[in-house]
Amino acid sequence: MYEGIIQDLIDEFGRLPGIGPKSAQRITFHIVQSQSADVTRLAELLATVRERVRFCTQCGNVSEQELCSICRDARRDAGLICVVEEPKDVVAIERTRQFRGLYHVLGGAISPIDGVGPDDLNITQLMRRLADTEVREVILATDPNLEGEATATYLTRLLKTLEVPVSRLASGLPVGGDLEFADEITLGRAFEGRLTVS
Amino acid sequence: MRVTQLSVADYRNYRGAHLSFQPGPNLLLGRNGQGKTNIAEAIGYFATLSSHRVSGDHALIRQGEDAAVVRMRVAHEEREVLLELQINRSGSNRAQINRGASKPRDLPRYFSSILFAPEDLSIVRGDPSLRRRFMDERIVADSPRMMTVMADYDRVVKQRNTLLKSARTSGTKANQLSTLDVWDDRLVELGSEIMDARTRLIHELGPPVAAAYHHIANDDHSPRMTIIRSTETVLAGVALSEAELGEIAVGAPPDISMATDRGGDHPHTMQKFRAALRAIRPKEIERAITLVGPHRDDLFLELNNLPVKGYASHGESWSYALALRLGSADRMRAHSTTGDPVLILDDVFAELDLRRRERLLAAIRSYEQVIVTAAVAEDVPEGFTWNTIYIHGGAVRPDFSDQHSTSERTPDVE
């Protein structure tokens, strides 16, 4: 245990996701010993990031303006909406450079244990969006775990009433991997989702 | 298959110990509280990835240490494989197979054993949860994938219960419960798979268990095992009309499974599960708990058409418990491609009368390797050449063969 403000800072860093007590200590001492200009800049950024960053009113992604950069981009196909759980999922899909449509960020997945129900997610906005605009396809890209699947099932049921085609990302074998090393669940899913080639 | 070497470090009461085993009968001899059972537990852990005595792993780590390490060399015919397991106090456990990094859940592919313990009597006499555990352990041993299915199922039950509870407290039922259907889908899907796996298992275990019982009790009491499904109980209670069942059949999703050996009647199980959930929903909302599914099923054991629980004598109950294990071993042996499972008998002989001891031993002597623990040599039937290992105070003692014949009966401290 350190004294006073040092320990306070260590505790504060330790509460951040992915940072354990040792890393928190390392970061704290790095800050204490580093040039004052660097630390001031970090402190300013921390203060302004909360003020400046908002959520896109259309898709729920992080943004510094009313609409996020993807929603503002006129070249994107507004007829396709990809539904994801978190803003970081948008970044992951953007890296593929294959999807040219728009996103909808739910802000999590249905999980009663964590106190998250459909009302806590951006679902009403999604429904409004689908009612207002011409959408050719909704792609559900929630995580392939229990909560993500449950969220996808919930949305599928909800979207049935709108007569919009809905698809779900495939799950199966990783590219570049060996079949023999795949676990049974993944291999089983790959069999279920197999494609007809001729 | 057989265990050739076992070494443990910072495991239970052992700082470090190394044991060599022989094919055939092995005997771990030592007074109570010295660490015989801990060795049996360590060997059994590789087959089931859990202790037969405690549910968590923390008790396996020597007090004051961060991790326990167990290494076991297993041989099948001329092939040897080295299995290593590190049980960590914080963080997940780690495993190595032939010095290559691996996952703990891969270990059971290389080693199978059947462990008999005094606790087995409670499978026959105790709560339904113990009988479910007995079945699920065998299912996972057959197909490790089912471990994930069971864990997911438990999580769905938890999510669903939380939802039901929050719906009850907040009162906004209609709104909150809109997601209940979503969890029902997963519950039915995963639950039916577990139910069918259990049905298939018990169907296969019936004949070997009956044969084993006959062997141990030397009497034909026609033992019978039936799974009591909570779905059936619920449906019998509400006496669902045929028309209603028909309607459900139409609404059920098609079976997209590629597996043909799923056993049971999968679509049928799912239909019934759905129907039972629908029938019991008002009660579930009232009690805020999931009332139907494999977590509420039981395995009903009978002798001479009477339930074992409450009717069978102590001796009969013991014979049944032994028959469940021995039957499991015989079934495993029949299916195995890597030789017999290793039989581990932890302090079992002390619980049995002389005749049962001898019959049990006669039944298992054909197995490739048997590992027995006992407090005194007198508990172990004669007429066997045992490879005896002496355990004392968390260490392996060099052979002091004259001592085991002197009866060292000490008060039970375990």
TrEMBL record, chain A:
> In residue numbers, where are the C4-type zinc fingers?
56-71
* Molecular function (Gene Ontology), one example: zinc ion binding
Signal peptide feature range: none
* InterPro entries named in the record: DNA_Rcmb_RecR, Rcmb_RecR, Rcmb_RecR_Znf, TOPRIM_dom, TOPRIM_RecR
Q: Where is the Toprim domain?
A: 79-174
Recorded hits in SMART domains, A to Z, give: TOPRIM (SM00493)
Could you tell me the Gene Ontology terms of the biological process aspect for this record?
A: DNA recombination; DNA repair
The domain of life for this entry's organism is Bacteria
Q: Which keywords describe this protein according to UniProt?
A: DNA damage, DNA recombination, DNA repair, Metal-binding, Zinc, Zinc-finger
Please give one Pfam family short name.
RecR_C
* NCBIfam families listed in its UniProt record: recR
Q: Any idea what job this protein has? A: May play a role in DNA repair. It seems to be involved in an RecBC-independent recombinational process of DNA repair. It may act with RecF and RecO.
Q: Which PANTHER family does this entry report, sorted A to Z?
A: RECOMBINATION PROTEIN RECR
Spell out the protein name for this chain. Answer: Recombination protein RecR
From TrEMBL, chain B:
List ligand-binding residues for ATP.
Answer: 30-37
Task: Report the InterPro entries cross-referenced here.
Answer: DNA-binding_RecF, DNA-binding_RecF_CS, P-loop_NTPase, RecF/RecN/SMC_N, RecF_2
Q: Which PROSITE patterns match?
A: RECF_1, RECF_2
Compartments where found: Cytoplasm
Provide one Gene Ontology biological process annotation.
DNA synthesis involved in DNA repair
Q: Name one GO molecular function term.
A: single-stranded DNA binding
Q: Which UniProt keywords apply?
A: ATP-binding, Cytoplasm, DNA damage, DNA repair, DNA replication, DNA-binding, Nucleotide-binding, SOS response
| RecF/RecN/SMC N-terminal domain: residues covered | 3-378
> GO CC terms for this protein?
cytoplasm
**Similarity annotation:** Belongs to the RecF family.
Q: What does this protein do?
A: The RecF protein is involved in DNA metabolism; it is required for DNA replication and normal SOS inducibility. RecF binds preferentially to single-stranded, linear DNA. It also seems to bind ATP.
What is this protein's name? DNA replication and repair protein RecF
